[in-house]
From TrEMBL:
Keywords: Signal. It comes from Chromobacterium haemolyticum. Residues 20-52 are annotated as: Disordered. Residues 27-52 have a biased composition (Basic and acidic residues). The keyword Signal applies. NCBIfam families: T3SS_CigR_fam. This is RcnB family protein.
Length: 144
């Protein structure tokens, strides 16, 4: 009789534990909603890495560009307002309403040349813009 009680207790414990061992329903149980979107985040990281390789870098440091600007007298530009400046980002188009100015010839002749790209002054920043209008690189406060 005692043997049957112990077997009964084991069966009861197994029956109560079974639902916790079952697989969660589809789309559930990944913990705080994070698991379902892992693949999208990985794809986004991979695509951004791909586009970073496609962009042309400025090819000059901010310090070197600042020296060239000082030597050629291309300084005194006013910075953009903070809200506009935040909208400048690599890989995005120039925001509408941003005044982009051509650079003085002495400075432009000393900057690295990239086919299909042009240097523009956007506020006090030196911006490399692709022919498509997308920003390839930004050198902050070079023309200040």
């Amino acid at each position: 009789m005692r043997r049957w009680k112990s077997w009964g207790a084991w069966l009861l414990a197994a029956a109560l534990a079974a639902p916790t061992l079952a697989n969660p329903p589809e789309g559930k149980g990944h913990g705080e909603g994070q698991g379902k979107h892992k693949h999208k985040d990985q794809d986004r990281e991979a695509s951004s890495a791909r586009t970073d390789r496609d962009w042309v870098a400025a090819g000059i440091s901010v310090a070197a560009a600042r020296r060239l600007a000082l030597d050629s007298g291309a300084t005194g530009y006013k910075s953009l307002p903070p809200g506009m400046r935040k909208r400048l980002a690599r890989g995005k188009p120039l925001p509408p309403g941003v005044a982009k100015q051509e650079l003085p010839a002495p400075l432009l002749s000393q900057l690295p040349r990239h086919p299909g790209y042009e240097w523009r002054a956007v506020g006090a920043d030196l911006v490399l813009v692709a022919a498509s209008g997308l920003i390839a690189d930004i050198l902050l406060d070079v023309l200040r």
